[in-house]
Write a structure and sequence with these properties.
This protein has 293 residues and is of the alpha+beta class. Helix content is 49%, strand content 11%. It has a six-stranded antiparallel beta sheet. The longest helix has 17 residues. The chain binds a DNA duplex (13 and 12 nucleotides) through α6, α7, α11 and α12.
Length: 293
DNA sequence: AGCCAGGACAAGT
DNA sequence: ACTTGTCATGGC
């Protein structure tokens, strides 16, 4: 899977051999909050933002190739990892469809997989994922992005024309009142609490990562005030590569109720449940309104 | 204008 | 073990 054709020109990497990877669906599917589409881009699709402590852009004109903007050739492994280009999604897609009992549910899942083709679960920073999804609770995506932008602007390290995601230490120092002032609302105390827990215990996130069973990883996260099953699942899926996590939000409830048979159990997706969830979220959130049942 | 958002918590059945 | 009201804010 690593037959990439990489060339570099003026700080832009062109990477060929990326299969069905889609810059658009990957960065527009609601998993990350620090990327925005670039207006008047010379590319068909371009998203710019901050990841892995750097300003970075990803662009695409056609399937099978992408552009990494603001990167050198030797940086490629970093972005290969971030974009999860090394993960075999073909196999996962097949497995998650075959996991569903034959019939209308399986046909429905095929549709979702096809509509979402090219989405990759990004390997995001652990703390950033935890903190971001605490912010996400009972909130909408545009406002989540706005709040996170404000957090980064005010408390993130300056990386030249942008700011990195603030460390747990810096948010702990900022304190609840300052976080509330950034319009985080009732989440301010949760963010402050998590920042204190993570900065005060250097091993905390490591223990979460080391937990073998999903239930163990979840219970560690849920021990934080303001982190419930949904936020924990998102944190584990997007920050800890736990594809067995299946975050259930209002959109997932909707798509399951509307398009799957009663009593459908997501556990049939097995170790690809998280990816399946992201497909279903994308399908319903962005495409769902078009064919009401 | 009012409903709702990638929910969690506490109090009440 | 389930159900309900509450929490801040602003997008649409």
């Amino acid at each position: 899977m690593s037959a990439y054709v990489i060339s570099e020109k003026d700080g832009v990497l062109r990477v060929g051999g990326t299969g069905d990877f889609s810059v658009f669906s990957t960065f527009d599917c609601g998993q990350c909050f620090r990327f925005d589409p670039v207006e008047n881009s010379p590319y068909k699709i371009e998203y710019a933002g901050v990841a892995r402590g750097r300003k970075i852009g990803f662009a695409q004109n056609e399937p099978g190739e992408i552009y990494i903007i603001g990167a050198a050739k030797e940086d490629f492994p970093v972005w290969e990892d971030y974009l999860a280009l090394d993960v075999d999604y073909g196999a996962m897609n097949e497995a998650m469809v075959l996991g569903v009992p034959e019939g209308s549910d399986r046909e429905m899942m095929k549709r979702a997989v096809e509509a979402s083709r090219g989405i990759r679960i990004l390997r995001q920073d652990r703390w950033e994922a935890l903190c971001s999804f605490i912010v996400s609770q009972n909130n909408n995506i545009p406002r989540i992005k706005k709040i996170i932008a404000a957090l980064c602007e005010k408390y993130g390290r300056d990386i030249g024309g942008a700011h990195d995601f603030p460390t747990a230490e810096s948010l702990d120092k900022a304190g609840e009142e300052a976080l509330f002032a950034l319009r985080t609302g009732f989440r301010a105390k949760y963010i402050a609490n998590a920042a204190r827990a993570v900065s005060g215990d250097a091993e905390f996130l490591g223990r979460v990562a080391a937990a073998k069973d999903y239930a163990d990883a979840e219970s560690l996260l849920v021990s934080l005030k303001g982190v419930g099953p949904k936020v924990a699942a998102c944190t584990l899926l997007f920050g800890f590569e736990r594809y067995d996590a299946f975050p259930v939000d209002v959109w997932i409830k909707k798509v399951l109720a509307k398009r799957f048979s009663e009593g459908f159990d997501y556990h049939v997706f097995g170790n690809s449940a998280g990816v399946a969830q992201q497909y279903l979220f994308y399908f319903e959130r962005y495409l769902g309104g078009e064919d009401e049942k």
